[in-house]
Structures
1.
Amino acid sequence: ETGVTQSPTHLIKTRGQQVTLRCSSQSGHNTVSWYQQALGQGPQFIFQYYREEENGRGNFPPRFSGLQFPNYSSELNVNALELDDSALYLCASSLVPLAERTDTQYFGPGTRLTVL
Amino acid sequence: TQLLEQSPQFLSIQEGENLTVYCNSSSVFSSLQWYRQEPGEGPVLLVTVVTGGEVKKLKRLTFQFGDARKDSSLHITAAQPGDTGLYLCAGLPLNQAGTALIFGKGTTLSVSS
C-alpha cells in the first residue's frame, strides 16, 4: 500500500455534468500529479501541483482544473463532461516535482469515471 | 505522438519461460522508470534507471537503459503467475521543463501455470 488514497472508487456521470475527484497524498509529500488512463493505454499526465500551485500541465483543455490543499489533499475537477472523459483517473504524490530530479511517485488506486 | 513505444503489447506465456519487454523512443530521456499495474490498482514503481548503459536487477527482473538513453528493456527470467500484470515504462524527457512522466501504452503480461 502506497499511502495514497482516492475517492470515490467508481463514479457514473452523464455528458455535460461536472465531477470532482479527490486524492489524499502521503504525509509530507508536497507534490501531486494527476493522470488520465484510458482503457488499454498508459497514464497521460494532466497536471502537477507543488505547494498548492500548478507546476506543469499536459495537453488537456481548461475544463480540467485542480486544487491542492495544505493538508496534502487535492482535487481534480472536470467540467462539461464528454464521453471521451471516461477513464481511470490516478493521482500520484512525491516529495518534489519530478522535473527537478528523478523521484519516486506513489500512485493511488484511481477513480474509475464512466460518462454516459 | 507516442513518445514511448512499448512492445509487445500483449504477451501470454507459460510459467518458467523467459521474456523481454521493450520500450523505445526517438527522444532522449533523463531517466526511465518501469512500473507494474494490477487490475483495480495504480502503477507501482519497480525501478528507475538514470545512466546510459545502466543495468539493474530486482530478483528475477533485469532492467537495462540504452547507451543513448532512448530505450530500455525489462527481462524476466523464469516467469511466475505472480508476474502477471500490466508493465509500463515511463520517462522524463530531457530538456522539457514543466512536464511530468511520459508513459508508454504498456505490455500486458499473462503467465499461466
2.
Amino acid sequence: DAGITQSPRHKVTETGTPVTLRCHQTENHRYMYWYRQDPGHGLRLIHYSYGVKDTDKGEVSDGYSVSRSKTEDFLLTLESATSSQTSVYFCAIRGQGEGSGYTFGSGTRLTVV
Amino acid sequence: AQSVTQLDSHVSVSEGTPVLLRCNYSSSYSPSLFWYVQHPNKGLQLLLKYTSAATLVKGINGFEAEFKKSETSFHLTKPSAHMSDAAEYFCVVSDKGGSYIPTFGRGTSLIVHP
C-alpha cells in the first residue's frame, strides 16, 4: 500500500531465535500499530505507538517488544520465537484527524519451525 | 471498552443476489466505524467508513453501510454480488475511549457461487 511498507514479506525461523519485523511509513503519521492475524480471531493488537519512543501494549503483547526511534519506522521483535507466533503480521498507520482511516501494510508471513 | 461483533463467520450467496454482512458494535463514545476487505493472501483495503456525518455511507465497488445508533449496528450491503466480491470482510470500530485504536471483528467470509 502506498506510504507504508513491511519487511520482510516472508520469513521462516527456528524456535528460540530472535526475529525483527520492520514497518516503514512515508506519511509522517504519529500513530502506528502492529497486529497479528490468525484464522477465527480477526486481527489482534500486539503493540502500538503514539510517537517517537512512545509505545504501549495491546491485547496479545506477551513475547513481543517494539521500538520506535524515528517517526517513519516501527520495529516489532519476537525475543525468542515460538511456534505459537507463527502468524501473519500487519502494520498500520492512522491518518491525521479524528475519524481518519487506517492504512495497512501488505503483511509479513512468519513461520516458526 | 469498544468492541465489535460480526454476527456471521460465513455468508454464502449466488452471483447477482444481494449481500448482507452484519456487524454490531459497542462504544461509550461517538464511534468511527469501518469496513475492510481482504482478498486471499492480500492486505486489507478500506471499503467505507462512518465518522458521524451521513448515516448511510457509500463505499467502493457498490458497497454501502448504514449506521443505526438505536440498534448499535453497521451492516454492510451490496445489491448484487459479483464473483470478485468473494473475500474476508472485517468490521472495525474506534473511539476516543479506546484512544482511537482500531478494534476488529473476527471477520466474515463471503462466498459467491456462480
